[in-house]
Amino acid sequence: MSLDLEQLVQEHLPRLYRAALLLCGDPWEADDLAQEVFLVAARDPDRFQGRSAPYTWLYGILLNLSRRRHRKTRLHRRKLQVLQEERSQQPPQSVSAPLEQQEFQGTLWALVDRLPEAQRQAVVLRFGQQLKYEEIAQIMGCPLGTVKSRLYHALRTLRGWMEAEEQEEGTPSRPATGERSRAV
Amino acid sequence: MPFSKPERDPETEHDPLEGELAQLEAELGPVLTRQADELVEQFPPDAERVLSRLGLALAKEPPVRRARGVWLWKAAACLAFAVAGAAWLLYPGQENRHPVARWHGAQVQQTSGTATAPEPAETPEPAAKNEAAASTTEAETAPPWLLSSEELEGIADLEQPGFALGI
Fold first, then answer.
1. Which residues contact B159 (CB under 8 A, 6 or more apart)?
2. Which is more confident, A69 or B1?
3. A53: left (phi > 0), else alpha (psi -120 to 50), else beta?
4. Rounded (10°) angle between helices A27-43 and B47-60
């Protein structure tokens, strides 16, 4: 099945970029990730059978790439931390994150980033993309009940973390709107 | 008491877990969505840049379909080479080419010869006769690079202790 790459990019880039940004938390990385999705699609267009909507297929590619990238980044960070500790024999100093990442850190999405991979992806598709449970199940390749269960556990964990943070900060009132303080 | 899943409410046919999920979604969902909107507003995507970078990347790397074709040709060439090599080594008509082929040819000729000739009945024979028969069959069927028993004995003599010293 032939795909018009330019049309595909124009139609689906905003949604895919949004999902990529929420998945990796860095606009530059999100840019790369979104581009890689289209690159994979353009290199092997025969994989799209036309049984589902193109965006379902593209989201599937995005989730796979994001999973791989997340694993690599985590490994890279661990290596850097070990190197830093070995060199200085001191606890690693907190390096000030770039402005874009600081923006991300100030949101609830920074907590979502700490969730297990499958739960994180479900939250991004549900609240970042406003997809229905059925669509999420199709994209993630799992039953509907699994999607609900992942979302349930993810949201419960998020709420627990928020409450713990509030207790640490000593603010008794839970934010009714769920607004997380921007100065983290 | 073992863990049991909370039962559905028969009146509403509603899973209590779903009710809690809906409540959590109502609590956290709007915040997550609004913050996602804010993030994307701050860092919007650039379709033109993505398209130009995609064009460059695709120009460097050909599509998979072409690459698949190359692999197919390579695989076919390897297969043809392997078949030709096997034929060169084992084809009985080309006996003067390679020792393996010569030996194989001898084997083929022998089997074709024995297939037509009637096989003698197996009867117990004296040891001397057996040895003579073994040496003749060895000479007939042995491959040309295989050393004869006399040559092997000569080598064994060389390995006797004291030979190297000239004693």
1. none
2. A69
3. beta
4. 50
In this prediction the ipTM stands at 0.76
Mutate to test the interface with B, among A127, A150, A174 (most CBs of B within 10 A): A127
Nearest neighbour of B45 by CB, restricted to A13, A100, A155:
A13
Question: Which residue in chain A has the smallest CA separation from B28?
Answer: A178
- Containing domain of residue A151, as a range? 106-184
Distance from CA of B16 to the nearest CA of A (A): 12
Does the pLDDT value for residue A174 go beyond 50? no
From the candidates B18, B31, B48, which should be mutated to test the interface with A, based on the most A CB atoms within 10 A? Answer: B31
A53 and A19 share a domain?
A: yes
Domain boundary among A71, A95, A119: A95
| Cβ atoms of residues B108 and B91 within 8 Å | no
| CA–CA dist A25, B40 (Å, integer) | 11
pLDDT mean over A158-181: 67
Q: Give the pLDDT band of residue B66 (cuts 50, 70, 90).
A: low
pLDDT band at residue B70, thresholds of 50, 70 and 90?
A: confident
The answer, for A4 touching chain B at a CB cutoff of 8 Å, is no
Beta bridge partners of B9: B14
Domain boundary among A62, A95, A128: A95
> What's the rounded Cα separation, in Å, for the pair B107 and B34?
84
- Decide if B20 and A39 are in contact by the 8 Å CB cutoff: no
